């Protein structure tokens, strides 16, 4: 029994905004199953009273003065955009 | 003899006396690249015209009486996940094939201030995900010691270029071993600094809580000079630490008398090749002769590091790589049906297999219903791993073990099964999870392939790591051996 179904693989691909073929879905199912079952060895450890670590340094809410600085010029920012018009980045229609 | 057989300090002296020029150094670099890069395949993009122009400007300043920095005029290679203004930066991915950055990474600006000369951009595993360079979407870099073997990864281009004498030194990045493992495979010196020591601004993010930029060099002393140039707090990176930066080179006294070394039994256990163990034990003898002592210790949660790492790094990657959507920069699919289709097709056509696999794993681990079981569990295990290191460092100055369980493996040997490839990083990953600094220095050979000794220190104590690495290097001659190409 796989730990992850084909439908779950397709659901995750949709969340990740990846288009995958049936063949890729099957391949991902096998590979993710292997990796997830390997990861389940973590369940050997009792972590009920352990705090999670998201970051190793003891830093919280790093603040700075709210000073206006110069931004990047528009033409520079648009230089790498695949499509643009009138100073905007252009995409296909978002509503039907 | 190549100019790059000299140390930074010697080249600095030669430049100062005008016995050589910066143009000579740049010539030496491009000449060597022309000779060997067809074989080594370390560079993705060269910056020759600009580099020669910078060299000329620097040569104009030679002989003037002003104080010049240690790295003045030195040619450097930069991993292709550090953005360089006006110089194509791809992360070895098709999704960034045409990307022309509009600003410099902080470390790149710092190198410019130090008046080093950027030679070009170095190959890597796509988005730094890999341990062999075989995940580059362009070509696989080869190990200069044996071109049938991998250079390691993900900073494989950065390590191979230094080993092959194409540049004096280079910058890499290390998320789970990506500087130390290729340094070990290629017989050079690579340091992952303490998390927060070096700014990550302009380093294309893979796993933000683990990534660090660091130097790859031929000697420990050169490594210390390069770290000096790139260290320090940066207003553009709120995770860079506001701690003082010591003079790293000044600490290279050669004195390790009374130093207490911990050797984790887990680092010399199952899966570590016999001659790798022997070279570590022989290295410990060298340090003992110099007056250090060592004892066996335990990092009991080591075996869980790999699983915790893949869950955490893939989760962070799945969030970080969401920015590659075909909208603002990078590859965009042709004729999408609508916006969602544009996202999906651009990403599917632009990313390679390993990147997709990790995005999938990370998205799964963060998804509703699985978050606590996988992501949060891995974060808790990370705490236990970090505590393992803290416990050992209460009594010892450094931790020593091998950098990798084996020397460089053959191209294609581990590409079929992702888990076999991942296992290569088992000795380097815990260091990233704990956020402490670690270096790999050459410590022997196995059938003609270099081996690396890993020296791990306390948070922000790169000075001790360097002092031990340097004392070891001065007592041995592994770093003097060069591959024949």
Automatic annotation (TrEMBL), chain A:
Record GO terms (molecular function): ligase activity
Reaction equation(s) it catalyzes: L-aspartyl-tRNA(Asn) + L-glutamine + ATP + H2O = L-asparaginyl-tRNA(Asn) + L-glutamate + ADP + phosphate + 2 H(+); L-glutamyl-tRNA(Gln) + L-glutamine + ATP + H2O = L-glutaminyl-tRNA(Gln) + L-glutamate + ADP + phosphate + H(+)
Signal peptide from the UniProt entry: none
Keyword Plastid annotated: no
Coiled-coil regions, chain positions: none
Keyword field: ATP-binding, Ligase, Nucleotide-binding, Protein biosynthesis
Domain of life: Bacteria
Keyword Protein biosynthesis included in the entry's annotation: yes
Subunit structure: Heterotrimer of A, B and C subunits.
Family: Belongs to the GatC family.
Function: Allows the formation of correctly charged Asn-tRNA(Asn) or Gln-tRNA(Gln) through the transamidation of misacylated Asp-tRNA(Asn) or Glu-tRNA(Gln) in organisms which lack either or both of asparaginyl-tRNA or glutaminyl-tRNA synthetases. The reaction takes place in the presence of glutamine and ATP through an activated phospho-Asp-tRNA(Asn) or phospho-Glu-tRNA(Gln).
NCBIfam families, per the entry: gatC (TIGR00135)
Protein name: Aspartyl/glutamyl-tRNA(Asn/Gln) amidotransferase subunit C
Organism, as annotated: Cytobacillus stercorigallinarum
């Amino acid at each position: 029994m796989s730990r992850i179904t084909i439908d779950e693989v397709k659901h995750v691909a949709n969340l990740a905004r990846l288009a995958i073929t049936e063949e890729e879905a099957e391949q991902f199912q096998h590979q993710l199953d292997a990796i997830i079952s390997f990861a389940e060895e973590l369940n050997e450890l009792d972590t009920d009273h352990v705090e999670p670590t998201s970051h190793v340094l003891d830093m919280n809410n790093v603040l700075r003065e709210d000073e206006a600085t110069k931004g990047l010029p528009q033409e520079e920012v648009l230089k790498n955009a695949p499509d643009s018009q009138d100073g905007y980045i252009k995409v296909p229609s978002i509503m039907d | 003899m190549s100019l790059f057989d000299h140390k930074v300090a010697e080249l600095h002296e030669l430049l100062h006396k005008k016995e050589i020029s910066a143009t000579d150094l740049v010539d030496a670099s491009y000449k060597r690249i022309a000779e060997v890069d067809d074989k080594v395949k370390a560079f993705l993009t060269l910056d020759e015209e600009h580099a020669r122009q910078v060299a000329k400007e620097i040569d104009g300043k030679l002989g003037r009486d002003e104080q010049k920095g240690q790295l003045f005029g030195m040619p450097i290679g930069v991993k292709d996940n550090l953005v360089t203004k006006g110089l194509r930066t791809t992360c070895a991915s098709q999704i960034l094939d045409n990307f022309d950055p509009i600003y410099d990474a902080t470390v790149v600006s710092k190198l410019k201030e130090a008046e080093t000369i950027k030679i070009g951009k170095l190959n890597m595993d796509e988005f730094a995900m890999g341990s062999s360079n075989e995940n580059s979407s362009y070509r696989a870099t080869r190990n200069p010691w044996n071109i049938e073997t991998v250079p390691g990864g993900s900073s494989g281009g950065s390590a191979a270029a230094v080993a092959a004498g194409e540049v004096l030194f280079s910058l890499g990045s290390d998320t789970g071993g990506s500087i130390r493992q290729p340094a070990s495979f290629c017989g050079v010196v690579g340091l992952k600094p303490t998390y927060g020591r070096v700014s990550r601004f302009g380093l294309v993010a893979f796993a933000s809580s683990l990534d660090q930029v660091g130097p790859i060099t031929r000697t420990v002393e050169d490594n210390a000079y390069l770290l000096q140039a790139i260290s320090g707090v940066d207003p553009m990176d709120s995770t860079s630490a506001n701690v003082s930066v010591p003079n790293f080179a000044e600490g290279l006294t050669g004195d390790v008398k009374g130093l207490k070394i911990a050797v984790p039994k887990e680092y010399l256990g199952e899966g570590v090749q016999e001659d790798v163990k022997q070279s570590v034990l022989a290295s410990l003898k060298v340090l003992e002769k110099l007056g250090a002592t060592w004892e066996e210790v335990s990092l009991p949660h080591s075996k869980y590091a790999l699983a915790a790492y893949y869950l955490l790094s893939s989760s962070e990657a799945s969030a970080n790589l969401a920015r590659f959507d075909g909208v603002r920069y990078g590859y965009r699919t042709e004729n999408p049906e609508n916006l969602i289709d544009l996202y999906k097709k651009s990403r599917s056509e632009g990313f390679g297999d390993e990147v997709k696999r990790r995005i999938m794993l990370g998205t799964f681990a963060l998804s509703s219903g699985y978050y606590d079981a996988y992501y949060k569990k891995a974060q808790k295990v990370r705490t236990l791993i970090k505590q393992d290191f803290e416990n050992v460092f209460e009594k010892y100055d450094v931790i020593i073990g091998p950098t990798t369980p084996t020397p460089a493996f053959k191209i294609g040997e581990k590409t079929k099964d992702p888990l076999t490839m991942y296992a290569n990083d088992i000795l380097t990953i815990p260091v990233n999870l704990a956020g402490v600094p670690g270096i790999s220095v050459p410590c022997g050979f196995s059938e003609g392939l270099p081996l690396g000794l890993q020296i791990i220190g306390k948070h922000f104590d790169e000075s001790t790591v360097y002092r031990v690495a340097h004392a070891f290097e001065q007592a041995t001659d592994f770093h003097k051996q060069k591959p024949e190409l």
